[in-house]
TrEMBL record:
Any one biological process term the GO annotation gives: D-galacturonate catabolic process
Keyword Transport: no
Extent of the signal sequence: none
Protein name according to UniProt: Altronate dehydratase
Family: Belongs to the UxaA family.
Length: 904
């Protein structure tokens, strides 16, 4: 027998369901209001059970808000589960569950504004003597909580460059350090649909109070360039940059440009380092309010605590910024409980409507927001998640402003910013708006941080805090065990001032950070057969859409192209049962939030040889997917790409590293591997949250790779017929070069190997190439979907939904490509982390300007150029040549979302 107070929490008086504060097995007896109830089924921590009778069809409530309807008459003790939540728990192998769900989700009907019911209240009372903190004064605005030199890429094309440039200044005396802003956006040839958001965010980054100096880096031909940012700032009335700054366009070799850019930065370092903290008003603090890895207690402890600390800051003249639009759908009455005026209320509702339309164009609804981790931890649907998220806005605090993503903050008080529920994408908008400190609430223990703005992480329960204390800053779970909210607020407010004044947060001590800007979306209006209609229905099923729209798999059978009898020898490796150019140890993050940790672990594993001589190198593939993005077609493409690398012929050992709260967690990929006919026991599995944080998970990963006694790969001579090669051309090329590529492909295929081309690539669009490769200039269609492994070797074409180079290279690798040969003109390309990218050129201007970055210069007629290309492929496959882009650190990895993916 246990008392209710020991095992349950009622969100608010009057609710008819409670939240289990620990796992309750079937048969548990609970004393509730003087009576004993017996739980007929297992109720996991964070899941809900009935405390008062609920008839069929009646509302089930939390915070006095309906989140579901009873599917049958429910009595005290009954487990509340929807079809989605029951499936999520069943998939984790939990015992004692019911056979059928007991509730259905509350419909997300459009919220109707009742203007007469709005409360136009006053903002919280100001303190008589506003406080201060120690910050860095800025001529152009509020003081900074940090003082960084920021190296900002305008597009993904420069992300590898700023990352490597920042690495070369590791440990330099420069205030709080030199940090890169590397991201995935703006890398396509066309103008992106997120251009306004992208320019606003990048402009805001340059003016953020935590930036002591900034270098803005673009690449020739970028749509999103330094000039575009300058023009955007002038057009929209941004103040001029007052800190040391420069705009740098890459125009020559990678190493050459690193030297030139480094010379621009070096004089700034002592200037930034000499700046001192001064006493400045708390009104200069601008808090970004975020939640990630949420659970059922987020709305009970961590979110209310963040809200109360924000309220206290507002009393001192400061600002708090709420975001994540789709995570407030269903909480409209709560958010508008206290609002500045009717116009603000209407703009908030208009923002939600606009967000619904945007995801609707892509065939999605907000119901798809809660991740698998969210559901498993008790957030059954978007209503529960939204009400809990909205608790970051205390009832007594007034909503003052509603602004667009990345828009400069219009004043002080409490502000809402439009943004997706994807944590990192949302944070970037808030930082672009001017926030200089982040409150990040989490149930599972999210470890995300931003490069130049400190993050304070509030964890919802004491048990989770104890497990992850090295990564967390605030134990909000103390509220659940008796500490008053007032005491916790005072304690956390003091910590906030200390961190704003220079004390390092847990994330800063760990040295982990990531940037992701609201990602581009493909659809810009309703599309028949794709878009969700106003009544929430699709006009057709996804399976009925054209295969290119949903990126459906194809038969994987090759085209009948031409071949040759030529054979180029190559020194390969005999690994297990196959002949390959290298044996890779892979650490694959299952979502964006574990990406940087995977990268760090792979570097450590390479240095310390965790896998001994059984692998030739260690690789991690950080990316932006797996959490705050839509499902359906884009999720299928993502899963297919991930499986492609796990099952790649060059992968000898692979471990999956989950964050722990993502949509695509370890269990998700276990089932996907089984579907693909692979044995999950072949792979390693680790979880940052479940295994106890960064140190614990690092030890687990090390132990797994060190546990094998595999024979070292053995040298064996072969030819290019053992390889799968991607062929690509960027920029202008001659008819002779086109024929040379065809000759290269003909030898590889004729030797028994495979060639993969991009459906959007310049080679396939060239008549001379198609004629020389396929014997006809007729159009050639895709044989495989993006990232799909093919069924038989030969000539293949991969469907490509866009023109972004890194997304193309990532798709190539997932098909099984082991090396990419690219002809470049007008500039060079970044390398891919897993697949070597070999760059050569026949263009004189390119050779003159970028010759230091080329792996070969293609001279002579088609046959001579083909021989140069084949010999270079062989040299890289034989490990005699390391491609220049790989050696210089100009590497990346980026997964496409296809035509239907969007941020949520």
């Amino acid at each position: 027998m246990v008392r209710f107070e020991q095992i349950g929490v009622l969100p608010e008086p009057g609710d008819n369901v409670a939240i289990a504060s620990r796992r309750l097995d079937a048969g548990t007896e609970v004393e509730l209001d003087g009576t004993t109830i017996t739980l007929p089924h297992t109720v996991l921590e964070g899941h809900r059970f009935v405390v008062t009778p609920v008839p069929t069809g009646a509302a089930l409530t939390s915070w006095n808000t309906a989140f579901a309807r009873a599917s049958r008459d429910l009595v005290p003790g009954d487990y509340v589960c929807t079809p989605t939540s029951l499936a999520a728990v069943t998939a984790r192998g939990v015992d004692g569950l019911p056979d059928e769900s007991s509730a259905t989700n509350e419909p997300l009907d459009p919220y109707e504004l009742d203007e007469s019911a709005l409360n136009f209240g006053a903002q919280v009372t100001s303190v008589e003597q506003p406080g201060t903190f120690l910050g860095y004064r800025r001529e152009q605005g509020p003081a900074g909580t940090r003082n960084h030199v920021v190296l900002m890429a305008t597009s993904s094309r420069s992300s590898g460059f700023v990352t490597e440039l920042a690495r070369r200044f590791d440990g330099a005396s420069a205030g709080d350090g030199v940090v890169p802003v590397a991201h995935t956006e703006g890398g396509e040839d066309e103008v992106p649909n997120n251009l306004h958001f992208l320019l606003a965010t990048l402009a805001g980054f340059t003016l953020n109070p935590n930036v002591g100096a900034v270098l803005i880096v673009d690449t020739e031909g970028d749509v999103v360039s330094g000039r575009a940012i300058k023009e955007f700032m002038a057009e929209h009335g941004y103040p001029s940059l007052k800190v040391p700054h420069a705009y740098f366009t890459r125009k020559a070799g990678f190493e050459h440009d690193l030297t030139i850019a480094g010379a621009l930065i070096e004089p700034w370092l002592p200037v930034v380092d000499a700046q001192q903290r001064e006493e400045v008003p708390l009104a200069d603090l601008k808090i970004a309010l975020q939640c990630g890895g949420s659970d059922a207690f987020s709305g009970i402890s961590a979110n209310p605590l963040a809200g109360q600390v924000s309220a206290e800051l507002i009393r001192h003249g400061g600002t708090a910024v709420l975001a994540e639009t789709d995570e407030l759908i269903g909480a409209e009455p709560y958010v508008l409980n206290n609002v500045r005026d009717l116009a603000t209320a209407k703009r908030f509702l208009s923002t939600i409507k606009s967000f619904k339309e945007r995801v609707g164009w892509h065939g999605h609804t907000a119901e798809g927001n809660p991740s698998g981790g969210n559901v498993y931890r008790g957030l059954y649907n978007i209503v529960l998640k939204s009400i809990g998220a909205a608790r970051k806005l205390p009832r007594e605090v007034r909503l003052d402003h509603v602004i667009d993503y990345g828009e400069p903050l219009p004043g002080t008080g409490y502000i809402f910013m439009d943004s997706p529920g994807n944590d990192l994408e949302s944070v970037a908008g808030q930082i672009g708006g001017g926030c200089n400190l982040i409150f990040f609430t989490t149930g599972n223990g999210s470890i995300t941080n931003f490069p130049f703005v400190p993050t304070l992480k509030f964890v919802t329960t004491s048990a989770r805090y104890e497990r992850l204390h090295a990564e967390m800053d605030v134990n909000a779970g103390k509220y659940l065990t008796g500490t008053s909210m007032a005491d916790l607020t005072a304690e956390t407010f003091d910590l906030t001032i200390r961190v704003a004044s220079g004390e390092k947060s847990a994330g800063e001590r760990a040295g982990h950070s990531q940037v992701s800007i609201w990602r581009n979306w493909k659809q810009v209006g309703p599309v028949d057969g794709i878009s969700i209609t106003t009544d929430g229905r699709m006009s057709r099923k996804l399976a009925d859409l054209p295969v290119e729209d949903r990126d459906a798999p194809l038969d994987g059978l090759p085209h009948q192209g031409l071949t040759s009898e030529s054979r180029t020898p190559v020194e390969l490796l005999r690994v297990d049962d196959r002949l390959v150019p290298e044996a890779v140890g892979l650490i694959l993050p299952t979502s964006l939030c574990s990406g940087q940790i995977a990268l760090r672990l792979a570097g450590q594993a390479e240095l310390e040889k965790w896998a001994g001589d059984s692998v030739t190198r260690m690789v991690a593939l950080p990316h932006t997917e797996g959490c705050g993005s839509s499902g359906g077609a884009s999720e299928e493409t993502f899963a297919r790409i991930m499986l492609g690398y796990l099952l790649h012929p060059n992968t000898r050992m692979a471990l999956l590293l989950e964050h722990g709260c993502e949509k695509t967690h370890n269990d998700y990929f276990r089932s996907r591997l089984v579907e693909a006919g692979a044995d999950p026991a072949r792979f390693g599995w680790a979880s940052i949250q479940a295994d106890g944080g960064l140190d614990a998970v690092g030890n687990k990963v090390k132990d797994w790779f060190s546990s094998f006694q595999l024979a070292a790969p053995v040298d064996q001579r072969g030819d290019l017929g053992s390889l799968t090669v991607g062929l690509e051309a960027r920029g202008r090329f001659s008819a002779a070069t086109a024929e040379a590529f065809a000759l290269i492909g003909r030898e590889i295929v004729g030797s028994g190997g495979s060639v993969v081309l991009s459906s959007r690539g310049a080679l396939l669009a060239d008549d001379a190439f198609r004629t020389a490769a396929f014997g006809s200039a007729d159009p050639v269609g895709p044989t495989v979907a993006h990232g799909q492994r093919f069924a038989e070797p030969g000539w293949h074409v991969m469907r490509m939904p866009g023109t972004d180079w890194m997304e193309t290279a990532t798709g190539f690798g997932a098909t099984g490509v082991q090396q990419i040969l690219a002809h470049v003109a007008g500039g060079t390309l970044s390398a891919q982390r897993f697949v070597p990218v070999v760059e050569f050129s026949n263009d004189p201007e390119t050779v003159a300007m970028y010759g230091d970055d080329l792996d070969a210069v293609a001279t002579g007629d088609a046959a001579e150029q083909a021989r140069i290309g084949l010999d270079t492929i062989a040299a890289v496959a034989s490990r005699r040549l390391v491609p220049k882009a790989v050696a210089s650190g100009n590497v990346g990895f980026q997964i496409t979302r296809g035509l239907l993916g969007t941020s949520m």
